[in-house]
Amino acid sequence: MILSAALVLALAGAAPAGEETDRIGAAPEWGPLDDETSRKLADAARRYEAYALRFTADETVWIAKYVDGLAESESVARYGYLLVREENGAIREVRQERKKSGELSRFETEDKEAFPPAYAWVFLFSKDNQPYFSYRDRGERFEGFDWVREFDFRGALPFTDGEDIRQWEGTVLVDAVWGTPVSIRAEPSRQEERLRMQFDRWTQAFNVIGFRLAPRPFGYRCEVGFRLRQDRLAFPTEMRYDTFRAVSAKQSIPWRASTRTYESYRFFQTESLEEPEGPAGSP
């Protein structure tokens, strides 16, 4: 079912009263992007679509698991990494384990996150996704050596499996010139409200021999960095997902941390993807 933009924005909701204001004191408004910004960011997402199958990279995965808030075990895995397109048009990650000798296994390895992969976040402003988000423009500034424009975003879909970026909300810095992401911080939409409800349900659940008959209340956070520049695009170089468990109405402890880095990008067949520069806002 395709939702209208108006309905989706209504589902995303307005900013709650008393929410943090921008740097000059005026509260920025939630809503759709203006036409010029929408075209610029959607065009960058379209170019990412063209590049999705044009590179390989080396992926390193660190997993840390916690017990009582302390890291108890860690693991490291290394893969050759690329993206492929399924028959239904969806983009899928492919991993081949890298052996100690440096050679890649001939077989595909299953080791994906339960959340959006790094490359999924480059489509935050795609033409198809924009109707499912409400945005808030916080203006431009310098972040280190990057001239960036900051946006808050809020997905309209309820948090279920967490695999769709439209189930998340957060803040993104985009390159003010090219409209490509520089960094993203996100968490599931309305997470605070969801955790409060889950914690109340968990504490009130019937306890059988020390076990409660309700799922534990877990929360999640995501950070993605885009530090590799290629042909006016920025590609993901690091992604981290943190899982934490609520132990009281206002306190949580770490449960799991997953960090994935992407290095040694190898691009191919990119010449035909270069586009002549035209006036601002041109298709």
Walk me through this protein's architecture.
It is a single chain. By secondary structure, the protein is mostly beta strands. The chain has one domain: outer membrane lipoprotein receptor (LolB), chain A (Clam), CATH 2.50.20. Helices cover 14% and strands 45% of the residues. It contains 3 helices and 13 strands. The strands form 2 sheets. It has an 11-stranded antiparallel beta sheet with strand order 4-3-2-1-13-12-11-8-7-6-5. A hairpin with a 2-residue loop joins strand 11 and strand 12. The protein is globular, with a radius of gyration of 20 Å. 24% of the residues are buried. The N terminus and C terminus are likely disordered.
Strand-helix topology:
Layout: H1 5-12, H2 35-51, E1 55-67, E2 70-85, E3 91-98, E4 104-108, E5 133-143, E6 146-155, E7 168-175, E8 181-188, H3 191-204, E9 207-208, E10 211-212, E11 218-230, E12 233-246, E13 252-267
Secondary-structure element series: HHEEEEEEEEHEEEEE
Cα end-to-end separation: 28 Å
The overall number of domains is: 1
Low-confidence stretches: 1-24, 272-283
What is the mean predicted local confidence, pLDDT?
85
**Helix fraction?**
10-25%
% residues in beta strands: 35-45%
> How is the quaternary structure best described?
single chain
